[in-house]
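Tutorial handout. Part one gives the primary structure; part two gives the three-dimensional structure as C-alpha cells.
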Amino acid sequence: MSACQTLTLDRLTVLLVDDSRPVRTVIRTLLTGLGFGRVFEAADGQEALVMTRTCRPDLCLIDYDLGLETGLDLARRLSDPRQCDRAGLPLFLLAADGFGHLARDAAAAGITAVLPKPVSPGTLMAGLARCQVTPSAIFPTLTRAPDRCASRS
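Part two.
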C-alpha cells in the first residue's frame, strides 16, 4: 500500500452470523452495496469461531437469535482468548426493536453495540460510526490523510 492510499470500507472484512440464510443474503447485499470488500457468512456459533480463525474479519455482525444459542453466548466465546485469538474484535449484535434491555448484558458479553434489526444502510453506518469502528479505528497505522493523496493519480 502506498503512503497516499486511504483505507476504506472496501478493505474491510466482515463476518456475518445469522442462522437464517435469507436474512444473511439480504444483509450481505446491503454490506456489499455499502462498499464492504469481503463478507463471510456463518450460520451458527461453531462455524463463526472457525471463520474468525480462517477469515480474520475486521468486525462481526451477530444476530441475537442463533437458534441453539444466542448472539450473547457467541460474543462471550469470541471475546474469550482461550476460544478465539481475536480478542478485541468489534462485535455488533443485531436485535429486533424492543431489545434495548440487552445493552447491559451485551456490554458484559463483549458486544461493541446493539444495532436494530431489520438493518438499514443508515442504521448500520451510524452504529459503526457511533462506536468509532471505521477503517482508521481498526487500522490506525495504515490510514493516511485524504488531502495528501488528492494531487496524485
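Part three, for discussion. The helical segments are 21-34, 45-55, 71-79, 103-109, 121-130, 135-138. Residues 112 and 131 are 7 Å apart (CA to CA).
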